[in-house]
Amino acid sequence: MNTLISISQLLQFALGSGEYLPPDALSEADITAAEQRYLLPVIGQALYEKLLAGEYATLRDDYLARPLALFTRLALQPRLDIRTGQCGTTAPKSSWGQPADDEALRRQRNALRCEARTLLRRAAAYLETHRTEFPEYLPEKNILNRCTTDGGFVQIR
Fold it and tell me: Is 0.85 surpassed by the pTM of this model?
């Protein structure tokens, strides 16, 4: 599977200092799902294919890699917070750590979502101001130019 970022980049951009996940906890399919759900409606299929082909490295590395990593973690986080085994679904608990409560998990998801959306809007603004450099980008197809959700409100333009 070809993705815009690697698993090691995902770990680098989406985890804070001191956080750790084994690389095998994530897959390229997780990244692809985030690309399809969050990036494609903004950048469009034609530009996405050019990025996958290795073109526009600055756009990919400086503007799209971090929001993609954060959106991927946002999608994965519920799966990472629980374990499924012979006894069903459980939350990990040990003598040195307790599972986070629902409020802490909600705050974490909100923070990840807010940062990822802000960085994606930054990427969209860059595309808007540099349209001539990206002929594949079609602003009328960018969902952020038609609809956004801010503070729980849906805004249709």
Answer: no
